[in-house]
Amino acid sequence: MKFLILNAGSSSQKSCLYELAGDRLPETAPEPLWEAFIDWTVLENQGRLMVETPGQKQVIILETGDRQRGIARMLDTLVIGDHAVLKSLGEIDLVGHRVVHGGTNYAEATLITPTVQQAIADLIPLAPAHNPAHLEGIEAIGEQLGDVPQIAVFDTAFHRTIAAPAAEYPIPQAWTDLGIRRYGFHGTSHKYCAQKTAEILGKPLTELKLITCHIGNGASLTAIKNGVSIDTTMGFTPLEGLMMGARSGSIDPAIVLFLQETQGLTPAEINATLNKKSGLLGVSGRSPDLRVILQAKAEGDEQAQLAYAMYIHCFRRCLGAMVASLEGLDTLVFTAGVGENAATVRADVCQAFQFLGLKLDPELNDRSPRNAVISTPDSLVKVVIVHTEEDWAIAQDCWQWWHSQGPGKKP
């Protein structure tokens, strides 16, 4: 069986192709036959496509910012050129999609039907930076691969275990009854990283108090106790919580009313600004990319310095809230683009929690080792870097869906 996995972020498109044989999943992630990554932030109105197959790498500049055309070009590399691994796209048995928001209706891997596709579209107001990208991928696959089964794996599913005191907002019950609650996001990554951390430490997941920090252009923290999510920083939408690349994170809701009343801004204008023009980008005036901010900070740019200071302050504050929800902390986990690679962010965040007995090993931290402990042996709180493998986690859910259909039930 060949499973194609599409993992669309707010500023990227990561994809891979797995070949799975037999009736049992391998215990560790197999090497993908093919991997591709589109970065939509590096070049203005263009994309940078990186394709990798065993022993080969290629970089392709996409001359348009049109994401559907970019996905089509990406799929071409599966069957055309030096990186071709298939004779035709018809060899693909199933396509799995990470979908950020599934609302209250979807808590497991689900076959994408017109009804499901419409539900994803209806939830765009709650995930404006992501759900449109998922739909673009779903539509592009439909055009290129026809009736191949497409499966949605929802980021919100992992957080369905959050109890009402943490999941509900202090608003009138009539509003809560409208579905306004904390949904949480990055669930696929948080779940995978928690399981991987337990494996790295050689301890049962059910005995750990973890905080997983998924820090990329979008970012969230999750408190995990007994293997389940009990609290998380993102809420009704992915806008809540940490200061992010282009999202504001949590702000006083009265600010929105003030802008409407004094500046005449519409809800759509405010929404677009908070989701796409705030965060590191909004404060620095330069970029949502932390690498750019760090370079500008080193060059003495005052707004970049302020943006970074705010970023770390917000991170520490939100992390402290997760520690309180857990009533303690065994292990702190960093993952995703910034979490895995930005040693200075990890050092600056961890410095504030030395009072918990957390001791970071500076040399190990600077190396940014993959799937490794980077705290000192005597640290009371273990600090771990986990390379998130959302694609493999999605593939696992898709495999389970495929086999749950039984003989003769598969599309």
Automatic annotation (TrEMBL):
It is found in: Cytoplasm. Mg(2+) binds at residues 7, 390. CDD domains: ASKHA_NBD_AcK_PK (cd24010). The keyword Repeat does not apply. Mg(2+). Can also accept Mn(2+). It catalyses: acetate + ATP = acetyl phosphate + ADP. Pathway: Metabolic intermediate biosynthesis; acetyl-CoA biosynthesis; acetyl-CoA from acetate: step 1/2. The active site is at 155 (proton donor/acceptor). GO terms for molecular function: kinase activity. Its cofactor is Mg(2+); Mn(2+). Substrate binds at residue 98. The keyword NAD does not apply. Catalyzes the formation of acetyl phosphate from acetate and ATP. Can also catalyze the reverse reaction. This is Acetate kinase. It comes from Synechocystis salina LEGE 00031.
